[in-house]
Amino acid sequence: MKHLALWVFIIFCCAATPSQATEATSLQGSWTLQSAVYTKADGTVIKLSADDLKSVKILSKGHFSFVTVNKDGSFSSALTGTYQLKGNDYHETPQTGSVASMLNKTYEFKAELKDNLWLHSGMEDGMKIEEVWVRLD
Q: What is the CATH number of the domain that holds 59?
């Protein structure tokens, strides 16, 4: 009986503790950029909405890809690479894409999920990033 109680306790603890796999799956899927605020090192603030550009990001198990087009439909940028999510720490390492200066660097962000929104914030090459993504699927 003692052994059964111990096993029940262990199973309960494992089930109640979110795993890294569960964390990573919480962001898996397709996202579109709803809004963004970018603050440059000199204090210049750039505010963008879905009316200004279209950006779609897709996350699978450990990999991401995104493409952004301008309001007129012209190409802006695209990147693909790997990511890790541990708690609210989201690390992204672009490996291929149109922005050569970003390739093979790891960027550290905070990720917060609220319903179907992904609040994405952090620093990227000296610029403060605050983005709101909406889940598509």
A: 2.40.128.280
